[in-house]
Each structure stands twice: as structure tokens, then as C-alpha cells.
Amino acid sequence: MQKDRNLKRFMQLTVYIIALLVLGWGFTPYQSVFLGAILGLIIGSFNIWFMYRKVKKLGQAAAEGTKAYSLGMLTRFALAGLAVLVALRYPDTFHLLSMVIGFSSAYIIIFIDFFLKTIRTQ
């Protein structure tokens, strides 16, 4: 399916960006900044994957005529809150602002991928 390919491409791009962040963590003196970005990107990517799974189940339930109860918003908020708590608890290890940027970058990856795919198809 097309949506499965989109998710696979998103996960591949995310892994490449995490690899770049790991290189930045290993070769620069800004370890806390890069670790915060890695934490945020991992949590953000998991949230996107979790939402994809829930939407897929919702679509199947609608096609079958059964009920789907939740899209897991509370779980995704709890994960984001957990990432913030970890960054606040260990500020010398995880930089809070870079964690927020890393979390947001998961959504930016989707936007850029969609934009580039739209340009390629025209």
C-alpha cells in the first residue's frame, strides 16, 4: 500500500537523521544538545508510528462497521510529557530545547517528504 511505503520512507529518513545526530553527539562537545534531539526525535517518531497504527485500525473498524474507541491521544501526550520530564530531570544529559526541536522535527520530516514528493510528481 502507498501509506505503508510512506511510513517506511519516513522511518528510513528518521534513522538517517538519528545517525547524523549520533555522529554529532560523538564528535562534538555538545553531547547534551544532540542527546536531547535524539530523545525528542525518537519519541516524536514513535508518536507518529503509534498514530499511524491507530488510524489504520480506525479505518478497518469503519470498513467493517465496528467501533474504534480511541486514537491514543492520551498515550501520545504522556510520551511527550515523559520526554520533557526526562530532559528536566537530567539537564546535564538532555538539553530541553533541543529535545523539543527533535520532537517537532519528526513532523517536519513528514512535511518536507510530502513537499518533495509533490514536486517530483508534477
TrEMBL record:
Assigned keywords, A-Z: Cell membrane, Membrane, Transmembrane, Transmembrane helix
InterPro entries referenced in this protein's UniProt entry, alphabetically: ATP_synth_I, ATP_synth_I_Bacilli
Residues of the signal peptide: none
Membrane spanning residue stretches: 7-27, 33-52, 73-90, 96-116
Membrane topology of this protein: Multi-pass membrane protein
Compartments, record wording: Cell membrane
Pfam families assigned: ATP-synt_I
A cellular-component GO term for this protein: plasma membrane
Domain of life the protein comes from: Bacteria
The name this protein goes by in its record: ATP synthase subunit
Organism placement in taxonomy: Bacteria, Bacillati, Bacillota, Bacilli, Bacillales
